[in-house]
Structure formats: C-alpha cells, structure tokens
Amino acid sequence: MASSDSPTSSIRGSELASDFTASLDIDRRMYREDIAGSIAHAEMLAKQGIISESDAKSIINGLNQIRDEIESGEFNWKPELEDIHINVEARLYELIGDAAGRLHTARSRNDQVATDARLYVKRIATECRAACRHLQRALLDRAEENINTIVSGYTHLQRAQPVSFAHVLMAYYEMFGRDAESFTQAEASADILPLGSGALAGATYPLDRNFAAERLGFSAISANSMDAVSDRDFILDFIFAASKTMTHLSRLCEDIVIWSSEEFGFIRLSDAYSSGSSMMPQKRNPDYAELIRGKTGRVYGSLISVLTTLKGLPLTYNRDLQEDKPPLMDAADTVAASLTAATGMIAEMTVRIKQMETASQGREILATDYADHLVREQTLPFREAYVQVAAYTRGESADEIDLPNITPADSIAARDIPGGTAPSQVRQAVMHGYGELWSARLRGEW
Ligand code: ARG
User: Fold this and answer.
1) How far does the centroid of ligand 1 lie from the alpha carbon of residue 170, in Å?
2) Containing domain of residue 27, as a range?
C-alpha cells in the first residue's frame, strides 16, 4: 500500500477511487506499454538534464522490476488506485522512494494514457494483420488443391454459373488481404507520440519529444497538444478495420454454414470446429462459424460505442475517454480469436468434390454458355440468344436451337481472362497470392 504521504495518493485527494471511476481491470492489460512509456520518458528527462542520471537509473530499474512482478503474477494490484498508471507509480514509490516522484515531471496522465493506448493499438493492429495473413495462407493452400474442383457459383443464392472452388476461396483471400492493409493503416494512424503534450498545453521543460518517439518506435510526434490528449481516431480506425474484417469473416462463415448443411453437403467441418447436439444424435453443428457470425455484432457495437463516446466532447481530455478501452479491447480480442478460428476451420475442412460437381450439373447452369455459343456461331445479338436459351431451358422449344455439348469444365475453362475462373487464371492468382504472402513475410508482417 502506498503510504498516505506518497505523492500518488495526493492525485486523488484523500478518497479512494470507487469502482465506478476505476479502470484498472481493463487498462492493466496495457502494463507493458505503460512501463515502456515511462522508461522512455525517464531516459529523455535524464538526457535533457531535467532529472539526474542516477534518479533515472533507479526509476528504470524499478520499472523493470515492476514489469517482472506483473509477469510473474506477484504484483499486488490495488483497485483503489484506480488505473494502471497509478498502480505502477505507487509501486515504484514503494521500491525506490522519493526518486519515483520525479518520473511524472512534465507529464500528465492525459498524455500518458494516450501514449499507452497508441502503443497498444500499434501492437494489436500488427497482431491482427498477422492473423489475416495466416487466414490468407490457409485459403491459398486450400485453393491450390482445388483449382480443378468444380462447383456451382451463386447469385441471389440461386445456381448461376460453374466456377472453380479455388476461385471461391480466392475471393475471400482478396477480402482478408484488404483487411490486412486496413490494420496497417490503423497502425499508421496510431503511430504518433502524444507524450510531451502534458495535461493539454504542453510542458515548461526542454523536452526532446523526438528522442522519446524514437525510443518508443513512433515515427512522428503530435503537432498540437490539445488535439493529442483528446484524439482517439486511431482507436476508431482500429475498430473499423476490425469491423470490416468481421464483415468478411461473417460472410465466409455464412457460406460455410450453407456449404456444410446436408442440403448442400459441399464441405465437412472437422470435429474440432463442429459440435453435436445434446438431443439429436445425428447433428454436426457449425458452431464456430455461427459464433463468428454472431460476434460480428459485438465488434460493430464497439465501433458505435467509441464513436458515441467521442461525439460532442469539448476539448480536451474528458474522463469519458476512459470508456474507449473496453470496446477497443473487446473488439481486438474478438477479431483476433475469430480470425484464428476461421483459419483452423478452413485448414481442416474436407472438400466434398463429388457433391460440388453434382450441384454444377444440368443444362440450366450452362445457360449463359449456350447464349454465348449462339452469339459466336450464329452472330445473334446477345439479347436474342438470351431469349432463345431462356425458352429452351424452360423446356418450351427444345428442338428449335442447336446447342453444343458443353460441360461445366468447358464453361469454366472458357472464362480465360484476368480475374476469371478458368483454371489457368486461378492458378496464376494462387501463385500471385503466394508471392504476396512471401513479400508480407519479408516485411515482417507474419
Ligand atoms: N484512467 C484514465 C483513462 O483511461 C487515465 C487518465 C486520467 N486522467 C485524468 N486527468 N483523470 O483515461
């Protein structure tokens, strides 16, 4: 317990923080960022001659010890000390005495918490991007195996045209590639150091903000102290990236639910990603897919929650801003877990080639190919060919038109243009995908 004359106790006057104002349960997850921010600040203060080298040294040693205590589970968290910042500072005071009181020179919890949150978003954005790359890799591997697997493609969930199943999987590969980029953008949006903004107006000491930025791995320092302590746009950007990713995951999962139904039977989920019913012995339910679809709403809720917290806030820091972290962390946890589950589901699913091929049989699904044939062979305008084939497929004029023997494989092979479903094109897309993921690996993304 910090003694009653500890400098940190004066922050809250004589009263203990109530459960209502405390945020420790949530923000203790930023302990690494909080400690890293404090170490960089202490180093900078010493470099600038604002505190002594020996005080900086004991502050840094103390902070490193606190990190060890937290990581080994020995740290004695005190909810009455409100948040992560005060918990760390109070423990530092216990460990090193008065020198601890010099750490908060030229710093406010306002620029401190903004710094912590930015470091945190940079880390989780990077983790989520890696999770997107892993899912892309699983999709690529399954696509490569299924370039010649024929399945019906759907519009309006009605059988439309035959496609390569790899082409289907590569559609999702594209989506998660865009999501990886969105997480990169969220990371860039968090990549600005607020430290040095003080409570709102800056600091009276000769700080070297660029030095602190460099120590913490930020590429820039904030330009306006009042904006810096109240800006949470980087949190919006992260949760938006998470929301968009959940949209794509939810679509993938909806397809998986459909494909794994008995009516379709296109895939079989592995035991790890399906569960039985407590009552009906025959059931294999796609619970993971359904839960990912269901959790999408939570992440959207987080986005709305932070948007609503920010609207109408007067400059600068307001305590409302403490409400940013529960939705941020929940969104991050949810999207990361959902990406990982989807990766396993895709990697382990069994593709039922026969069932897929059966769904792509019949002349209806080749109707567009017949119309194209009439356009080519009889130089009919497409609209006229369309009308003839429509009548034919309805069984109204079976012998009036002379149609070639086209198979679903012919139909697919004919779509041999960039972006099309012909096996040669899809193979190129898969190879291009491996190249993209290799570059991403060289950039250290996963
Ligand atoms: N727990 C607070 C938060 O998360 C830290 C900043 C508090 N600053 C203040 N002036 N009360 O926003």
Assistant:
1) 45
2) 13-102
